[in-house]
Amino acid sequence: MSNLDKRIYPTIKELGGTVVDLLRHSNPKDPNWSATNASIGHNGKALYAATFRSSNYYIDQMGKYIPNFGDKFLSKVFFSEFDRDWKLKKLREVDFDGLEISFGRGVEDAKLFYRDGWHFTGVVLDKHHTPAARMAIFKYDPRKNKVVSYEKIAGRDANVPEKNWMMPSTPNDHYDWVYGPNQVVIGNTVQTWLTDSEDISNLRGGSNLADLGDETSLAVMHRTYFDMTSPYISTTFATVQSQLRDYVHYFVRFDKHGYAMQISPGFRFHQAGVEYAAGLVFKGPQAIVSFGRNDVSSHLAFIDKDQVLKSLKTITY
């Protein structure tokens, strides 16, 4: 039995929720491009939409990233509104042409939000202008299907990559981003609360934050574990030691200052392995989480919001 099998957590279905499969390929006629890490957003009225990351690689049984073609890892961003049955109304590739800079390898893990129009955050990395990964904000016009503005956010150090920052769904006067469970970004400053709490140790960002209407917000975060395993490789008739990633997820509630105040027990969406939650919204009594599976497919998870809130326990600092 591998370490993955020993670490047991309930799935969304075991917690009483449901999962809907959205996409495996951004273009069904071209299996070289995935459709993963869906990020659902809400315009505050009746419209729900999502961005998707489409990439040219897969993760093999040894945990290695393998391009489907060529020797470069490439990403595209797709966008679609949902209909009332949570079907995609019109999936289209987002056009980035016309900006002052180009993105040769694409934008990774776009996370959708609405502030007087659709925007998404994303990770950019390009040897010509962004040698270390950086967070950026893109304003998107769905009628023209174009990104109309772009802002790159500076990092802590020129050589330190940045990703997984979380944006609040509504602006506030206290912070701009949640950088981690005990860290926020305010302007050009990363503010940290010192703590030895095991409750938030090694938590990493996932979805943007969804406003709960009482000056608190909810997000999905995760911990990543690395497990050594020895899968059988049929082409060589042997076992090969490899390292696999395993994600465990948590609902986390933040106060108005971006301070993590409550956390749920750990859970999985489907099973052990690579899962990434990039979106969280509310619709009536439901919390809806959008996530990617194995970096190749996109899904929605539905669970009762009150059940989530009742599962939260106070974080001890």
Question: Can you put this structure into words, describing what you see?
Answer:
The protein has helices spanning 3-6, 305-311; strands at 18-23, 36-42, 48-55, 57-59, 65-67, 75-81, 92-93, 107-114, 118-126, 130-141, 146-152, 177-180, 183-186, 189-192, 210-211, 217-229, 232-233, 238-239, 242-254, 260-263, 275-283, 286-293, 297-304, 313-314. It is mostly beta strands and 317 residues long. The protein starts with a helix and ends with a strand.
**Fraction in helix:** under 10%
Shape: globular
List SSEs in N-to-C order. Answer: HEEEEEEEEEEEEEEEEEEEEEEEHE
Number of helices: 2
The gyration radius over C-alpha positions equals 19 Å
Biggest sheet strand line-up: 15-16-19-20-24
What is the mean pLDDT? 93
SSE inventory with pairings:
Layout: H1 3-6, E1 18-23, E2 36-42, E3 48-55, E4 57-59, E5 65-67, E6 75-81, E7 92-93, E8 107-114, E9 118-126, E10 130-141, E11 146-152, E12 177-180, E13 183-186, E14 189-192, E15 210-211, E16 217-229, E17 232-233, E18 238-239, E19 242-254, E20 260-263, E21 275-283, E22 286-293, E23 297-304, H2 305-311, E24 313-314
Antiparallel strand pairs: 1-23, 2-3, 3-6, 4-5, 6-7, 8-9, 9-10, 10-11, 12-13, 13-14, 15-16, 16-19, 17-18, 19-20, 20-24, 21-22, 22-23
